[in-house]
Amino acid sequence: MVMIGNALGGNVQLKAHCKSRDDDLGVRVLGPGQEFHFKFWTSMLFTTVFYCSFEWLGSGGLHWYDVYDDNRDF
């Protein structure tokens, strides 16, 4: 399971867009202290990667992060 949360402080909203090669979970806008979770099945070939873009006021643009990578997290 992956948990994405907004701990930015202040009254800043966090925009997150998470997806894999096969699944797009859509854009989520999280207010202060909010979070969302998602679960998935990993590939038998150990090729599953979920990545998210994050953006918030003053962030200077999109920031990408691999939130799950079979090669790293299995």
From TrEMBL:
Keyword Secreted: yes
UniProt main location, coarse: secreted
Segment forming the signal sequence: none
Transmembrane segments: none
InterPro entries: Self-incomp_S1 (IPR010264)
Keywords: Secreted, Self-incompatibility, Signal
GO BP field: rejection of self pollen
Family: Belongs to the plant self-incompatibility (S1) protein family.
Record-given protein name: S-protein homolog
Source species: Linum tenue
